[in-house]
Amino acid sequence: MAGARISVDQNEFMCAVCLDLLKDPVTIQCGHSYCKSCITGCWDQEDQMRVYSCPQCRQTFSPRPALARNTMLAELVEKLKKTELPADCYAGAGDVQCDVCTGRKYKASCLVCLNSYCQNHLEQHESWFRGKRHNLTEATGRLQEMICQKHEKLLEVFCRTDQKYICVLCTMDEHKNHDTVSAAAQRTEKQKQLKETQKTFQQRIQQREKDLQQLREAVESHKVSLEKKRSLSLAVRQPAALDKRRISTPD
């Protein structure tokens, strides 16, 4: 008899801290489960207060609870990992991988978290930050190029003085008192300039095509004129040749 298969939702086995499948899962007193390294990191930050909380339900514990591996949950996660995902979930050539679960195709990028997410982790992200102003955009593989390397903030400002994109914090130090505009305004201006340039090139191309057509017509007209002159010349020479033959032929 074949064993019964139980359908499970992969989201039930996600760590609420790293948003990835549980690794070395532990279950704390309130019943929520986390990667051991994730909950350890959270509680390390609460060491000074000597009061430790659950990142999800905020239930507090004191003293710091001991962490024991949830063996059954770990086995379920391992089985879930072996379940093959649809081919279109994986990142292929030219695709950008999800920043949480390496290997899967991205769905969207968050300009606040500065990460790209697959469908599953995008849903987790929206669940965690519901009601907060997180700016989701079409997924892009150029996310790191949109971040200030010094302040790790989005490049939302364009410095006209130095001709480069900068972040808001840059306007307060090395770009202070510089001529700046929003990145959106700069992009709009660039797009306008590009359209004008394209229009100019298009006009030049059309003018050259017109000049070329006129040249072709002039060449064709010249050919026709030469042909007419040649025909006229033949028409004049032929009667003269006949008269000459008559004169030179004795009766």
TrEMBL record:
Domain of life per record: Eukaryota
What sections of the sequence does the record tag as coiled-coil? Answer: 198-232
Show the GO MF annotations: zinc ion binding
> Any idea which UniProt keywords this protein has?
Coiled coil, Metal-binding, Zinc, Zinc-finger
Q: Please list the residue ranges annotated as the B box-type domain.
A: 143-183
Give the Pfam families listed for this entry: zf-B_box, zf-C3HC4_4
Which InterPro entries does the protein's record reference? E3_ubiq-ligase_TRIM/RNF, Znf_B-box, Znf_RING, Znf_RING/FYVE/PHD, Znf_RING_CS
Question: RING-type domain: from which residue to which, for each copy?
Answer: 15-58
What the entry lists under PANTHER family is as follows: B-BOX DOMAIN CONTAINING, E3 UBIQUITIN_ISG15 LIGASE TRIM25-RELATED
What is this protein identified as? Answer: E3 ubiquitin/ISG15 ligase TRIM25-like
